[in-house]
Amino acid sequence: MNLWQRAYYLSIFTIIFNLAEGIVSVYFGISDDALTLFGFGLDSFVETISASGVLVMITRIRNNPEAERSSYEVTALKITGWCFYGLSIILAAGAVMNLLKGSAPESTLPGVIISLISILSMLFLIFSKKTVGKKLSCSPIVADANCNLVCVYMSIVLLAASGAYELFHLGWIDTVGTAGIIYFSVKEGRESFEKAKDLKP
Questions:
Q1: What value does the mean pLDDT take over residues 44-73?
Q2: Is the pTM value of this prediction over 0.90?
Q3: What's the rounded Cα separation, in Å, for the pair 10 and 129?
Q4: Residue 22 is part of a domain; what is its CATH number?
């Protein structure tokens, strides 16, 4: 398997993993009334949009390194940015409602399990993408690996919030975890627009 094929399959794996992670996280987030886990799941779906743009980029470069960037790559970044901002607003509203109603999750154990799996998977992707990106001298692949690092930070937030709630059963802990997801969502949204601005299809 050559390096471009490896980069292609890593991108495919990223998309499949994010979709599966999103579905499972949203399901348990809703069933257990765990807002942090629910937000983490929605974030995974947004990451899928970004990953699809990277897949298009890798396919373009692999087939024709001299080809111009497609408009889809830029559009995917802009859509990703707006989705992250929208996600932040939804989560902020949910957090306020939970505080006013005094809502608390039934369980956050799924969040602990999902976050641990996510951390291990993202670390694998970061190492693999950086290795391939450096060997190919392809900075966009290395930049994509750095985006996965933000996913690790989100997973750590989810792990900390879920683990703390399982230990102490304080409802506001889930709200604090949600605030952490909101912070990184806004950060990723801003970075997506900055990347789109730098690209010219």
A1: 84
A2: yes
A3: 7
A4: 1.20.1510
